[in-house]
């Protein structure tokens, strides 16, 4: 009877409020936002419509793709906004920008507005894509700061849903609008905005209570593995649907049913949150431990911001102090100012990796449909491996996050070395495209998708570990801002121009626009040999980072998050000035005292 009564007590507004305000619900809400934040990776699905309806050639398409990538990766503004404003402001800005940018593209495609000049279309797609940096910054930074000991897992998990979002978009637009690529742009306009608004007040930075080292890594990370299992189920479901829909003709009603099942799997992640909170309440009702070190939380409004007393750019001290501090960084793992990080050798190496590595894989993904056409693959096969890139992208993101965290915790395997390995593997995919080996594009799409996905969680985790979390919202956006430069050079200048030159030659000197395409291995051979070379160069440069951080990764880089400093326990204050309470003898405490401790813990 007591157990039954306890179960009933869970179905109350108080418990529902506890769930929504919990640290784990922040993860769930961030998953939902991230699942709608990968619209830039389905550019290949509607690029053919842009080409046919607006009369663009390949170079113009690649220029649009560059501005899309520019907007997606240059999130400096969103990072700075996150430093000074609460997360809900960041998410609302992103919702508005996304809706405005992609809606204008949709109106141009459907003829509801006059065909805009190319520069204006570039602005629309850059503006809409830049909205995703606000969503990513708000969700990712909140979760990393809420779970600093598991940042590799957190980043890998959230970024994996970004990888799946392309396949999610494909299923939803077929269910809502049918097979109409222009309507896919409309879905891209309103869906991320809707998800941002849905989660706007639940994604936030919560006060972090350091746990005792005896807590156990496995128990602490168990909910993240439950999230991972559900993401694997979603990826497997999408994989089956993509393959099945290419073999069997689905009716509109069938698409509605399959998309409904997709949403059920996606939103079932809330069950992990309910389970964790139910378990926490049950344990608290049974008894409280004889002694718990609880860090008194700040109000949520102040927890949203870094409580620094010095300016974020250079650490204070005026212009002279700024210049002086800029070249005197702290030890690796401590909180760097923005300028200290930007002028460091470590960040310079990460910039090079971003330009060469991510720029090359972005070029391959954005041109995958045209690569398939040039090599003579049937349209059904092209659509299949373009769609499946989302699945391999997911596998790379999830695998890099969880596996690198496991290797780091168990064997002290440095994350920068894992990034080097990913860059070397991606060279294999580029070479398969360059030489056009028969039937090899399937393998190339798997390698490129996996390696592209794997680079992001590794890059973001390294930045958080090397430069600290104080200015993480700005620094991880600076770290990814270099990739559009590589995408522009490799995609627009190298690939786009070489493709158009070959297509023009094949068509007797007539400019290759609209439906005039290039055919044969030669179309992409030279560009991808160049991409292979610069990616290999990026892998060699990354070894500099491996060498400079070798001693840092040999130690326990998360030690300061596991146990409150002894001095703080002695004088009753924590390392950041928060008061630490010792709660003892809980058996004879009142229910009110239990609830107070419960609020402190979660």
Automatic annotation (TrEMBL):
InterPro entries linked: MFS_trans_sf, NFD4_C, Nodulin-like
Region annotation Disordered: where it falls in the sequence: 569-602
One Gene Ontology CC term in the entry: membrane
Domain NFD4 C-terminal: from-to ranges: 341-553
Pfam families (UniProt xref): NFD4_C (PF23262), Nodulin-like (PF06813)
Domain Nodulin-like: 23-273
Keyword presence, Ribonucleoprotein: no
Protein name from the UniProt record: Nodulin-like domain-containing protein
């Amino acid at each position: 009877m007591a157990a039954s009564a306890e179960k009933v007590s869970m179905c109350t507004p108080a418990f529902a409020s506890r769930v929504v305000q919990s640290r784990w619900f922040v993860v769930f809400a961030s998953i939902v936002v991230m699942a709608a934040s990968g619209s830039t990776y389905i550019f290949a699905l509607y690029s053919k419509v842009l080409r046919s309806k607006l009369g663009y050639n390949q170079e113009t398409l690649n220029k649009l793709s560059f501005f899309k990538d520019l907007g997606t990766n240059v999130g400096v503004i969103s990072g700075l906004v996150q430093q000074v404003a609460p997360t809900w402001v960041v998410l609302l800005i992103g919702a508005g920008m996304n809706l405005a940018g992609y809606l204008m593209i949709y109106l141009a495609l459907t003829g509801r507005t006059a065909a805009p000049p190319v520069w204006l279309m570039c602005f629309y797609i850059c503006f809409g894509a830049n909205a995703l940096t606000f969503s990513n910054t708000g969700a990712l930074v909140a979760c990393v700061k809420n779970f600093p000991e598991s940042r590799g897992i957190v980043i890998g998990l959230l970024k994996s849903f970004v990888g799946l979002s392309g396949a999610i978009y494909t299923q939803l637009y077929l269910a809502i609008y049918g097979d109409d690529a222009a309507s896919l742009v409309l879905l891209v306009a309103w869906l991320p905005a809707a998800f941002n608004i849905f989660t706007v007040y639940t994604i936030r930075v919560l006060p972090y209570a350091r746990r005792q080292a005896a807590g156990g890594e496995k128990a602490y990370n168990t909910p993240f593995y439950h999230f991972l299992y559900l993401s694997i189920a979603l990826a497997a479901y999408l994989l089956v649907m993509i393959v099945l829909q290419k073999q069997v003709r689905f009716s509109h009603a069938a698409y509605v049913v399959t998309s409904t099942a997709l949403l059920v799997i996606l939103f079932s992640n809330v069950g992990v949150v309910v389970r964790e909170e139910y378990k926490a309440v049950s344990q608290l009702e049974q008894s409280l431990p004889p002694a718990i070190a609880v860090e008194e939380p700040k109000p949520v409004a102040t927890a949203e911001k870094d409580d620094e007393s010095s300016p974020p750019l250079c650490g204070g001290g005026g212009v002279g102090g700024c210049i002086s501090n800029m070249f005197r960084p702290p030890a690796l793992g401590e909180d760097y100012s923005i300028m200290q990080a930007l002028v460091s050798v470590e960040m310079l190496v990460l910039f090079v990796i971003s330009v060469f590595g991510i720029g090359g894989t972005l070029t391959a993904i954005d041109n995958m449909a045209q690569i398939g056409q040039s090599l003579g693959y049937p349209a059904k096969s092209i659509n299949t491996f373009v769609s499946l890139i989302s699945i391999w992208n997911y596998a790379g993101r999830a695998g890099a996050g969880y596996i690198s965290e496991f290797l780091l915790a168990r064997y002290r395997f440095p994350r920068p070395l894992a990034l080097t390995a990913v860059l070397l593997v991606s060279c294999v995919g580029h070479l398969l495209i360059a030489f056009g080996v028969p039937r090899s594009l399937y393998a190339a799409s798997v390698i490129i998708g996996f390696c592209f996905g794997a680079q992001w969680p590794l890059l973001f985790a390294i930045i958080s570990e090397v430069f600290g979390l104080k200015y993480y919202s700005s620094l991880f956006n600076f770290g990814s801002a270099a990739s559009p430069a590589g995408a522009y050079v490799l995609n627009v200048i190298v690939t786009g121009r070489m493709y158009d030159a070959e297509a023009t030659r094949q068509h007797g000197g007539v400019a290759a626009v609209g439906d005039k395409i290039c055919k044969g291995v030669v179309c992409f051979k030279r560009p991808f040999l160049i991409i292979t070379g610069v990616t290999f160069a990026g892998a060699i440069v990354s070894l500099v980072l491996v060498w400079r951080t070798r001693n840092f990764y040999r130690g326990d880089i998360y030690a300061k998050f596991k146990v409150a400093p002894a001095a703080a326990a002695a004088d009753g204050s924590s390392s950041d000035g928060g008061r630490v309470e010792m709660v003892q003898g809980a058996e004879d405490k009142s229910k009110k005292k239990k609830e107070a401790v419960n609020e402190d813990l979660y």
